[in-house]
Design a protein that fits this description.
By secondary structure, the chain is α/β, with parallel strands linked by helices. It is built from 13 helices and six strands. The structure holds farnesyl diphosphate. Belongs to the UPP synthase family.
Length: 361
């Protein structure tokens, strides 16, 4: 009985107008202080622990997810106020489809409702100029949910100051597989049919292709009928080989034997797979265009990535595991993480500076 009274009393104190006002001022002050230092440009959250929170507090699982959404709204406000440009959240893993139908349906309804609320004019995303992007496998989502999320995306599409990436339904393996498929597709499409040939005019591969094309034309003039003796692989072409000296045998031009008597414009001209780099794959990821991931936070004491942001985590991404459950997560837990990140960032910047100095000497 006493503890109930104490609980009621502490709630009354916490929510009494003067205390609530002081807490609000303190939040503003702390966020303002964070804003002074380097601020992570891209932060990702694994919002873990909603069901455990629900069990601990003897509430329905769905209510736990609801409180998880409240925590998300609080933390988005902190991020955008502090100057974070992109927030990426793990809202629904493809693995989550294995949960009970009741819970999956409830999470889908929650997404429909909450994304709509977030996107409303005058609501959080509107206030901070943040656009919603849905990263995930649309083919797994029912049409009514697609319709709702597309509406939220459309409402916020003109917001240009920040981004909220909602991973839904997502796994990194699915993202990376799709990115590789589309890269292969791009590199199997003749350059002539691509939209941006002018961009590549002065690229190394373009110049190599031009030289190769010229050699092939000279070859055709001199010794017609020699095509059949060559394999479709240009690696076996003498001329191409000499141009490629010191490079891999993988090349960009596929010669179709049936094209031998046609003008060179009919020769398919493929992008050079040798030019595929991490940056190429980056452009095919769902986070294309986003700044590099600076910070990834997972709550609930579980220390694994669970197939989230596997591609995006780079050598300088800080990965932080916190003990608190997601619905408990707020500025008070996030602040030490941000301060530590700022400290690490400054150290890194100093190291980079002194490395640049010693190179210049
Ligand atoms: C805008 C939008 C779509 C909001 C979504 C709201 C929200 C917080 C969703 C998270 C859902 C989820 C699977 C959380 C993981 O905790 P868990 O259920 O795995 O908890 P546990 O680890 O305790 O089992």
């Amino acid at each position: 009985m006493t503890s109930l009274h104490e609980h009621g009393l502490s709630r009354w104190i916490a929510y009494s107008p003067p205390v609530a006002w002081t807490v609000r001022q303190l939040r503003e002050l702390l966020i303002g202080a964070i804003k002074q230092g380097p601020v992570p440009q891209h932060v990702a959250f694994v919002m873990d622990g909603n069901r455990r929170f629900a069990r601990e507090h003897h509430i329905e699982t769905v209510e736990g997810h609801n409180m998880g959404f409240e925590a998300l709204a609080r933390i988005l406000e902190v991020c955008y106020k502090a100057g974070v440009k992109v927030v990426t959240i793990y809202a629904f893993s493809i693995e989550n489809f294995k949960r009970s139908k009741h819970e999956v349906d409830a999470l889908m309804e929650l997404a429909k409702l909450k994304l709509g609320q977030l996107a409303e004019h005058g609501a959080l995303l509107d206030r901070y100029g943040a656009a919603i992007r849905i990263l995930g496998n649309r083919s797994l989502v029912k049409p009514d949910v697609i319709e709702a999320i597309d509406r939220a995306v459309a409402i916020t599409a003109n917001n240009k100051r920040a981004i909220l990436n909602v991973c839904f339904p997502y796994t990194s393996r699915d993202e990376i597989t799709t990115a590789i498929k589309s890269t292969v597709e791009q590199f199997s499409t003749p350059l002539d049919s691509l939209q941006t040939p002018s961009k590549r005019t002065f690229s190394e591969s373009h110049i190599t292709q031009q030289i190769r094309k010229q050699m092939l034309e000279e070859d055709t003039d001199g010794r017609s009928g020699a095509w059949e003796s060559r394999s479709a692989s240009p690696a076996s072409m003498k001329g191409a080989k000499s141009v490629e000296e010191g490079r891999s045998s993988s090349t960009s031009t596929t010669i179709n034997p049936s094209d031998k008597d046609e003008t060179h414009s009919a020769t398919p001209n493929y992008p050079d797979p040798e030019t595929i780099t991490a940056a190429t794959l980056n452009e095919h990821m769902l986070t294309a265009g986003a700044p590099p991931l600076d910070l990834l936070v997972r709550t609930s004491g579980v220390e694994r990535l669970s197939d989230f942001m596997l591609w995006q985590c780079h050598e300088n991404t800080s990965i932080v595991f916190l003990k608190c459950l997601w619905p408990e997560f707020d500025l008070w837990q996030f602040l030490p993480v941000l301060v530590e990140w700022q400290w690490q960032k400054k150290k890194l910047q100093e190291q980079q500076k002194s490395r640049a100095h010693s190179k210049a000497d």
